[in-house]
Design brief:
Layout (H helix, E strand, L loop, with lengths): L3 E5 L9 H10 L4 E5 L4 E3 L2 E9 L4 H11 L5 E5 L3 H8 L6 E3 L11 H10 L2 E5 L1 H4 L3 H21 L3 E4 L11 H8 L6 H10 L16
Parallel strand pairs: 1-2, 2-4, 4-5, 5-6, 6-7, 7-8
Antiparallel strand pairs: 3-4
Helix pairs in contact: 3-4, 4-6
């Protein structure tokens, strides 16, 4: 299982090169990074997975962008919007992650959407930057929203990812620190380990089930 930060933003989106992020991530216990708008590669033994985040535009626009990228081993994420949009996005083959639920409407993710995410293998992202850099009401809102997500996850068992949204190597966090942040909204150590292992599996080919006939 690869320990993966599911969203970092290397230069020019951030102020640190992808190589420097990889070197720092390795010292913090990570095996791979989903680097937004960055070609796939490897630095110092850390795998770089190319990622894109599609804005919450129309469903038609999302479909067009997904069709362009779904066969390229790119980790495709969609920013959350209202409940209907989120259900449509989760239902699209080729979408890997739904992001930004901490800033979406409270009703943007319900039991139906949660079951769809589980059925389609679409991960729900926990944006740790909302806790690391957030303050006051915004931070409390994110914590409560993540608690709600964990309640649904325990019922429906959809995948989760954890992202620092690091734009500098200083924004990265060690696995131990992430475990502490996870405890704020009900994640225990096995939950964190499982979520950190999800990012590296999203573009892997699905393994067909084997039926044994006696």
């Amino acid at each position: 299982m690869k320990i993966t930060d599911a969203a970092v933003f290397p230069y020019p989106c951030g102020d640190t090169s992808v190589g420097r992020l990889a070197i720092e991530a390795k010292t913090l216990g990570f095996d791979s990074l989903v680097a937004i708008d960055t070609p796939a590669g490897s630095f110092d033994g850390v795998e770089i997975l190319c990622g894109i985040i599609l804005p919450a535009a129309s469903v038609r626009d999302i479909i067009t962008r997904v069709k362009r990228s779904k066969d390229s081993a790119t980790v495709i994420s969609v920013l959350a919007r209202d409940n209907g949009f989120n259900r449509a996005a989760i239902g699209l083959k080729g979408v890997h992650i739904l992001r930004g639920l901490q800033t979406a409407d409270k009703n943007a993710f319900d039991h139906v959407t949660a079951k769809m995410a589980a059925d389609n293998g679409v991960a729900i992202d926990i944006d740790l930057s909302a806790l690391i850099a957030g303050r006051g009401i915004a931070r409390q809102r994110a914590i409560q929203r993540y608690r709600d997500i964990m309640t649904f996850e325990r019922r429906f068992e959809f995948p989760l990812t954890l992202s620092t949204y690091a734009r500098s190597y200083l924004d990265l966090r060690a696995v131990r620190e992430i475990t502490g942040l996870g405890s704020l909204f009900g994640m225990d150590i096995p939950d964190v380990e499982k979520a950190l292992g999800t990012g590296g599996l999203l573009t892997a080919p699905s393994v067909p089930s084997v039926r044994v006939i006696a």
